[in-house]
Amino acid sequence: VDILLETALMSKHLALPREGHLEQVLHIMGYLKQHKKLRLMFDSGYPKVRENWFKKYDWFDFYRNAKEAIPPNMPEERGHSVIITCFVDANHAGNMVDRKSQTGILIFLNKAPIHWYSKQQTTVESSTFGAEFCALRIATEMIESLRYKLRMFGVPIDGAANVFCDNEAVYKNTVIPESVLKKKHHSIAYHRCREAVAAGTIRVAKQGTTKNLADLFTKVLTNARRAFLLDRFTY
Q1: Block means of pLDDT (10 residues each) for the chain, length 235 residues?
Q2: Residues 73-97, buried b or exposed e (16+ Cβ, 10 A)?
Q3: pTM exceeds cut of 0.85
Q4: What are the CA-CA distances from residue 169 to residues 63, 178, 186, 189, 211 (Å)?
């Protein structure tokens, strides 16, 4: 998981690799050689979530028919309930060649990381707002799929999934019903995320960039910054 971004960046050059790409791969191997014992931390404990991070609004006048997809033939729920937590981030115009953005997503079940994602977006976004909203839409679809699968496994889910992003505009446009979208080409991601909030599938809070774990999957970081983020879910 600690070399997910670097692997994703290098995989784009499989068809026509150059000497510079080989040098970067050797750097990755050198990093792995120095960090042989790094392990993921699978903790079944519940994360500490402050309810004042999340604001509640009445969505009836905007998405009155919004409901989460529940499997009609799901088995009886057994065991302890789980809390889904997701960190999402995007590096706007991170690719210096075509100026496409990189999406980074990290999903936890309780305190255990179970899914990590780093991929270049297919379109060029003119603003950070658009890149972050596209990343949030992808995270929303992943969470919906995960919740559906867990219910089919008979795993009880405790409330809506907690989603943390570091963009103020995306956060406000997602959680405030009266917010108005000014850019129509973002309307699909806009309504997709807002409807998920209205249905109670997710709830979104703003997390500062310094504590957003998905930052690890969007841009190349310094050793100190990388170690700070990895310490949160590895040992």
Answers
A1: 95 93 95 90 92 94 94 94 97 94 97 97 94 97 98 96 96 95 90 97 95 96 94 92
A2: eeeeeeeeebbbbbbbbbbbbbeee
A3: yes
A4: 20, 13, 13, 14, 18
Matching residue, tokens 């309307």: 187
Residues with Cβ within 8 Å of residue 61, at least 6 apart in sequence: 177
Per DSSP, the residues of 75-86 read PPP-S--B-EEE
Beta carbons of 137 and 145 less than 8 angstroms apart: no
Reported in sequence order, the residue ranges of 44-191 that DSSP labels E, i.e. its strands, are: 84-91, 102-109, 112-120, 161-165
Closest CA to 90 of 188, 2, 214: 214
The residue type at 174:
T
Quick check: 131 and 95 in contact, CB under 8 A?
Answer: no
